[in-house]
Amino acid sequence: MTLMVEAKGVCKAYGGIEVLKGVDLNVARGEVTCLIGPSGSGKSTLLRCVNHLDKHDAGELRVDGELVGYELRGDKLYELNDRQICEKRSQIGMVFQRFNLFAHLTVLENVTLGQIKVKGRSPEAATAKARELLARVGLDAKERSYPSQLSGGQQQRVAIARALAMEPKLMLFDEPTSALDPELVGEVLDVMKDLARSGMTMMVVTHEMNFAREVADTVYFLDAGVIEESGDPRTVLSAPRSERLKLFLSKVL
Amino acid sequence: MNTNGDATVKVVPVRHVGRYFSGAGALVIIAMVIHTIFSKLPTGQYACRGVVPHRSCQPKTEWRFSWDVIRHYFFSAEIFHGVEITLALTVLSMLLGIIIGLTLAVMRMSPNRLLSATAWTYTWFFRGTPVYVQLLLWFNISAIYPQLSLGIPFTSWTFLHVNAVNLFNPFRAALMGLALNEGAYMSEIARAGLISVDEGQIEAASSIGLTRRQTLRLVVVPQAMRVIIPPTGNEIISMLKTSSLAAAVGVVETLGAATNIYSQNYLVIPLLLTASLWYLVWTTVLSSGQFYVERHFARGSLRTPPPTPIQRLRNDARGIARKFRPVHDVGVAP
For residues A210 and A237, is the Cβ–Cβ distance under 8 A? Predict the structure, then answer.
């Protein structure tokens, strides 16, 4: 099985504070990986490093076999320019905690923008693709609405459709349900489960332990910038070995 | 209201006694203003009719505000041409000012310290000196730069020579001064707009692979417009009037045309009023335009856009009609 994401000793510091202290992680193609841990443990930072929204300081980070943010030519690492980074980002979908839908565009325009401007699709083809994806997340009736007219759950589903429209090989979810009212969490998780079943490679930062248990192939528990424990969700979540994970689970479950 | 469909209870709204008094006061003031605007003054001459024992004389009067003179000059060729120059100055200096302002705002926010410091210094200078002084400076710039050349800096290679006196004719000097000054103000307005766009929007744009330039153009600027438009509207309206300073360097715009005429016939007040009326006409046009532009750029940020003045009038009319409808109509379900 080939690896989609490969991290070796990834470090990241913000203004002198070490957020990631040498993280090793592997995500196989078609696998769903959940990152859990207390807030400030570095899970979101790790996710953001994967698509280079944050730049890691040290270590090796590869997506689909290629280095993130750099290119190895001969024995030198060349930093990629804006265009090259964007090219790589367009192959990785990302869903944010606060949805971040483009507020000035309708639902349909949100889903077609990247297709037209980055992938160079014709507006007709982009619209057709967008309608198909909106139907898949159950929002085909809302294509003319603006994000502010939608509920949180609906916005997040549009955000997933927007990311999928780029036909990514990897999807990153940064606490996708944390900003939602409890009764809206289910509709977003359902879309994500459906996506997981379709064979999408996913990295999910989440506090939804049931989702992790049910959908994840591997769970990583991060604490204070290091991976404390990882493995099959049923073992990791049911029979935690480390004290920290036991403490964490006792708080969230 | 109708509770069970049979018993009709009349609702008595609260009486706002204070409002009647303040309303009456306002009405008196409005009446006074209208009265004085359309009042007449004795000219000191008399108009007499008839022959001597039956001769009757009435004092001659004229409009206090010289409406007949104003009407005569309002559409005169000279004033009209001045108005055209005012509009040309306003539009061109605002266009240049907006371009300069946006450039400066992006420079200010650049991670390159040298760029942001340059932009800061520009704003510092052009906001720190009066426009009037700047206009005079550009008009007289040929005193220190008689020749302007285009070439490679610090070498003797030049391709293009212009005589500064010819380049900075009154109109161009005024345009230059107004635009450069406006650029400094617009940069602050544009910067406020760009800052107001949520960081998450930029991250989302990056995450779907838009380049920095595309993100700015397709995501940040359109959303910043909502914040940029209202103060820019104010700037345009303010520029319309500030452009009258161009008269100081000999541009015959609206005010210049008016002063040219009254310096010959001494009809000072009527011509100043003529100029004022023209300024009022264009501010009215611009402010109503501003309303619709703001409404357009607010899309997506408001669940229901504010009603247009016409919609508001229609709603008011409906409300008044409802008030005067007989009570038993209210609450009768169809």
Answer: no
pTM: predicted TM-score of the whole model, two decimal places: 0.77
Q: Which of A107-121, A229-243, B45-59, B241-255 has the lowest mean pLDDT?
A: B45-59
Phi, psi (deg, nearest 5) at residue B260: -55, -45
User: What is the distance in angstroms between the Cα of A52 and the nearest Cα belonging to chain B?
Assistant: 9
What tokens were used for B304?
């229901």
A159-194: per-residue pLDDT in tens? 999 999 999 999 999 999 999 998 899 999 999 999
What confidence tens digit (pLDDT) does each residue in B20-76 have? 999 999 999 999 999 999 999 888 888 888 888 888 888 888 899 999 999 999 999
Which letter does DSSP use for residue A101 in this model?
-
Q: For the CA atoms of B304, B306, B309, B310, what is the dihedral angle to 10 degrees?
A: 0
Q: Position A179: which residue type?
A: A
Specify whether the CB–CB gap between B261 and B116 falls below 8 A. no
Choose from A49, A92, A104 for mutation: most chain B CBs within 10 A.
Answer: A104
Distance, in Å, from the CA atom of B91 to the CA atom of B102, rounded to the nearest integer, reads 16
pLDDT of residue B295: 82
Tokens of A214: 């049910």
B79, B272 Cβ separation under 8 angstroms: no
Q: What percent of chain A has pLDDT over 70?
A: 100
Q: Is B111 on the interface with A (CB under 8 A)?
A: no
Residue B332 has pLDDT above 60, yes or no: no
Q: What's the CA gap between B76 and A227, in Å, rounded? A: 83
ipTM of the complex: 0.92
How does DSSP assign B260-282, residue by residue? HHHHHH--HHHHHHHHHHHHHHH
Question: Which residue type, as a one-letter code, is found at position B235?
Answer: E
Nearest to A101 by CA among A145, A140, A63: A145
Pinpoint the alpha helices (H) of chain B.
17-37, 67-74, 77-108, 113-128, 131-139, 164-167, 170-196, 199-207, 212-214, 221-242, 254-265, 268-297, 309-324
B190 Cα to chain A: minimum distance (Å): 18
